Amino acid sequence: MAITSVVPPTPHVGDVIVSQWQAAGLLKPSAIKPVITTIEKNLVVKGMGALTSTDQQSLRHALRVILG
After folding, report:
1. What is the pLDDT of residue 32?
2. What are phi and psi of 45, to 5 degrees?
3. CA 58 → CA 18, 43, 45, 67, distances in Å?
4. Is the dihedral of CA 45, 36, 65, 17 positive or negative?
5. What is the DSSP string of 8-65?
6. Is the N end or the C end of the chain the one with fewer CB atoms within 10 Å?
7. CB-based burial of residue 6 (10 Å sphere; 0-12 exposed, 13-18 middle, 19+ buried)?
8. Distances (CA, A) of 54 to 12, 16, 38, 41
9. Is the pLDDT of residue 1 over 90?
10. Within 10 A of 65 (CB to CB), how many other CB atoms are there?
11. pTM check: above 0.90
12. In degrees rounded to 5, what are phi and psi of residue 32?
């Protein structure tokens, strides 16, 4: 999933607003966009943070909505 600091005023279907972005270690308010992709592990420079359990549940719900 793609993460962005451009948080829409009205989220679209599948968007997840990271409510606890500071606790997750993110630098700015953020949203997760419903774009599923893969990347080679050696291209990852560093981790961005870790979602809290509340935001993980929101992400799981969005995935259920998107994937059925």
Report:
1. 95
2. -80, -45
3. 9, 27, 26, 14
4. positive
5. -SSPPTT-EEETTTTTTT-SS-EEEES------GGG---------HHHHHHHHHHHHH
6. C
7. exposed
8. 19, 11, 24, 26
9. no
10. 11
11. no
12. -100, 125
Single-letter amino acid, residue 7: V
Q: Map residue 67 onto helix, strand or coil.
A: helix
CA distances, 21 to each of 38, 43, 50 (Å): 23, 24, 9
Q: For 9-53, write each residue's pLDDT tens digit.
A: 998 888 999 999 999 999 999 999 988 888 899 999 988 889 999
Number of residues in the chain: 68
